[in-house]
Amino acid sequence: xxKSQVSTEFMFFVAAGFVLLAVYxxxxxxxxxxxxxxxxINSAINLLEELRNEINLASRVENxxxxxxxxxxxxxxxxxxxTISEREINxxxxxxxxxxxxATQVTVVGSxxxxxxxxxxxxxxxxVKIQKY
Length: 133
Hints:
The protein has one helix at residues 3-60; strands spanning 66-70, 80-93, 96-109, 118-124, 127-132. By secondary structure, the protein is an alpha+beta fold. It has a five-stranded mixed β-sheet, covered by helices on one side. It starts with a helix and ends with a strand.
């Protein structure tokens, strides 16, 4: 075997190793990105479910029920919007709408709540109301 053949083969194997490493890193990056997106989606859905449960609880209890709830200012350091209208609650996060139906009709008193607000969920005269604190 000649020295030039050994060095050529060595360079070939090193290059093949770099190609395999690059493919592995690319695949790993895609899976990591997918995992982070799933975490964001789960966080948005968890906020939606938590609010829905609070409102549905208010609809089932007696008149006079009052509960303070602090809306997070962001979800995983990203902005979101919240809409509560009649029997639907909606969270828009990363240009995707997540919506759930409520057990009762809800009246928003005053201006609509925005992220970072403290809201009061209360039941008066068999009606659930939400207002800013």
